[in-house]
Amino acid sequence: MTSPQTPGPLPEADLTGVLDGSLPPGLYRWRPAAGDPGPSLGPEEAGWDSRAVDLGGVGDGDGFVTRCADGLGFPERFGRDWDGLADALTDLGWTDPPEHGRLLLVRGWDAFAQSAPADAATAADVLSAAVSYWAGRAAPMTVLLS
Questions:
Q1: How far is CA 20 from the centre of its chain?
Q2: Which of 22, 41, 64, 84 is the most buried (most CB within 10 A)?
Q3: What's the maximum distance between 2 C-alpha atoms anywhere in the chain?
Q4: Whole-Å CA distances, 96 to 51, 91, 132
């Protein structure tokens, strides 16, 4: 694992653009506007495997990795560390392949990043590497940090 770097500002995402493919797969910030009804179809109806990780109350890297394992339903063999997370995000053979892609929504990112900036930088590196890995494949991955 490389040493974490403080990530620069991430581009903002529009969920409709993610689902209809007009926004390329990537690691994005997502801040839905109050009262925004969202896209006309949800991720699953649009052919995406959509999963969420809730970081509420998480203040360190171990908590981040554990929440990912729980929220994403990693198999028992998952190594509960940064390298294990990177491996699990690039070896998704235990999931059914989606029609269009994989969408990961990470809720509570701002509070996590504020309480554990070095761990958040490492998490962003791991997530970005997973997005890059899946980018050229039939079912790319997009991660939304909310």
A1: 18
A2: 64
A3: 41
A4: 13, 12, 20
Using alpha carbons, select from 36, 108, 42, 119 the residue that is nearest to residue 85. Answer: 119
Instruction: Pull the structure tokens for residue 89.
Output: 């995000």
Cα–Cα distance between 58 and 43 in angstroms, integer? 26
Residues 29 and 100: their CA atoms lie apart, in Å, by 21
Delineate the domains of the chain, giving CATH numbers in brackets.
Answer: 15-30+37-145 (3.30.370.10)
Model confidence, pTM: 0.86
Instruction: Compute the distance between CA of residue 35 and CA of residue 16 in angstroms, rounded to an integer.
Output: 15
Given a cut of 70, the residues of the chain with pLDDT beneath it are 1-11, 33-41
Tally DSSP H helices, then E strands, for the chain: 5, 4
What letter would DSSP give residue 11?
Answer: P
Token digits for 74?
Answer: 């990693």
Answer yes or no: are the C-beta atoms of 134 and 25 closer than 8 Å.
Answer: yes
